[in-house]
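Discrete fold record:
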Amino acid sequence: MQAFVRFSDKKIRLRSQIYEPDYIVVQDSSLIADVNVFGGMKEGGIALVNTEKDTVPGVPPGVKLIAIDATSVALEVLGLPITNTTLMGAFAAATGEIELPALEEALRERFSGSLAEKNIAAARKAYEMVKGGA
């Protein structure tokens, strides 16, 4: 599956695939062998990849790789291999496009009680890992 998101302070009217992404998030690193996930990435872009490995094949020159074992974080904190909020925390740290308090607020709106707190803990842990705090 591929999904595309555009960030802007202005209204976005374009609804198409993104051909030259600034950022990519790869939830399943096994896809890299079969799909050109790095295609069109801009120099200076960031590739965030869920993997337990330190290196990833095919990262273009000039693209910053952030490899994070989001599955292990999710299993540890959530008890399930669901990596969405973990990767959002890592994305926030890597790009600065989302501030951690805003992400935490969104998670509290989406989830309730202990599930909200677990998802926030997973996002925070990944955020700190990318920022170098863990």
